[in-house]
Amino acid sequence: MYFSLARTTSYLDSLLTLLSSSPSTAQALDALDAFIIPDFIALPAVVQTIRAAATAAPPPLLVGAQDCAGEDFGPFTGEVSPAVLREAGCAIVEVGHAERRRLFGETDEVVRRKVAAVVRNGMVPLVCVGEVAPGDGAAGEVVRQVAAVLEGLEDGADVVLAYEPVWAIGAPEPASAEHVRGVVRRVRESEVVKGRKGRTRIVYGGAAGPGLWGRLGGEVDGLFLGRFAHEPEQFVKLIHEVAGVEREKLSDVPYVAQLKNTSDFGQITVGNAQKWDSSEPAQGYFSYAGGDEIVQLAQSNQQLVRCHTLVWHNQLPARVRDSNFDNATLIRVLESHIRNVVGHYKGQCYSWDVVNEAISDDGLSYRSSIFLDTIGPAYIPIAFKAAAEADPDAKLYYNDFNIEFASAKTDKAVELAKMVQDYGAKIDGIGLQAHLIGGFVPSASALQSNLERFTSLGLEVAYTELDVRIPVPVSAADVAQQELDYANIVASCKNTARCVGITVWDYSDDHSWVPAIFTGYGSALPFDADKKPKSVYWAILNAWGPKRECRRH
Ligand SMILES: O=C[C@H](O)COP(=O)(O)O
């Protein structure tokens, strides 16, 4: 209850103008299920206005209602029937918002009846859940709520869960990314969600605003916006952000200017735009605008492109991640995705990260994912084979973290590479992500021995996502250690004949993922927030020495 009727009308007019004002906005909108939820009185007019402005059916902007009755018709004066909402053109109905629970005494049982009513009337319930106070019990509380409100629901129905920690609603800041990821993961792993046949998407709400999406690291399926979408420009900005975070970075002029300096950067990696959720946002619908933008930037500057990534358990659309595809169907879906995406970029990628992070964190097994659980480890060589067919000249990589030093995970990565080779599929390289911690980086010779475990299989190697995080605020001692760590990494690659590259995971501290993910750490990159080289930049150059050749194998 924030907008008057007049404000809703002017908001919608401005929003529709903005959404149709540029092809990239239209494309970003196409990649998402964007919706607005006006009040009941405005709703029919909003539906009509959106339909009238749309050039395609269904319109790209869906309309939702803020609540509904648990019954379709009858003696419930003052209530709004879900059947009437459907008749009015609603696609989504929000139920169980924290304010309805707190102010109007709605219980899980009331919410459960409303969820069932929304589904019964052919709409998607947007079910709000969230713990009342922050603390360790959050995930348990939310999982219990989800189980209660979905109980008895038709199994195949699509559901959107809006995870909104009650204490974050209306707060200045959202919950930390770490907290959100932890709770959402527990909800996804819960019996009630895992056992469902229908799609269960989880979006985050509660002071959700600019910058949050990138920090959530692909764990949620979307954002549920309140205040931060009250201005149409902000809503459009967030649509862009969710559709592909790179675009926002590309509007940072000093960032792009420095990126074009080929003395420092001989190659660019596409960060998010080629991941499955961006490149194939709907089944069989491919969206390349975000990836193309980065590839063209690199090409205009004669830089190589590392293309990233085809098969990963994260940033995978829920329709695949939570699917019940059988073995043959999932193989078809996997191969089709790879064929299309690699085919689109044929001849433009120096390398592809074909499979990313397929090994469990303890290194003892392959990581559980829809691919492993449905197809078995054979999905890995199947993916490599499909990629090789789509672009025989691209170097095909397996990419992972914590394989930069001797560990069970490194042993497993060696086993994985051999498995792909034994299968007869082409694998050219191993990408060692190298998200490292200052003071915990092995010596150059130990790092080199590790690299040689892979090169002895006939593969090339590269450090693909290097950053060395240190505690912030930084101390002189930690910075000195970080310089040594970077120098050891560089020396290990320089001294390994088939080490072909070192890529930092973004280059300036303002665009680093580290502060949002690793509480208390930062300053992980060679350039500061003003894009000025830091001492580790010079440590990197010194470690490489005067002769800087570009190796290609
Ligand atoms: O309905 C909106 C949500 O409750 C979040 O509101 P907020 O983003 O303004 O905190």
From TrEMBL:
Catalytic reaction list: Endohydrolysis of (1->4)-beta-D-xylosidic linkages in xylans; Hydrolysis of terminal, non-reducing alpha-D-galactose residues in alpha-D-galactosides, including galactose oligosaccharides, galactomannans and galactolipids
Family annotation (PROSITE patterns): GH10_2 (PS51760), TIM_2 (PS51440)
Any one Pfam family match given in the protein's UniProt record, by short name: TIM
EC code: 3.2.1.8
EC top class, as a word: hydrolase
GO cellular component terms listed in the entry, alphabetical order: extracellular region
Organism this protein belongs to: Staphylotrichum longicolle
Subunit annotation: Homodimer.
Protein name: Beta-xylanase
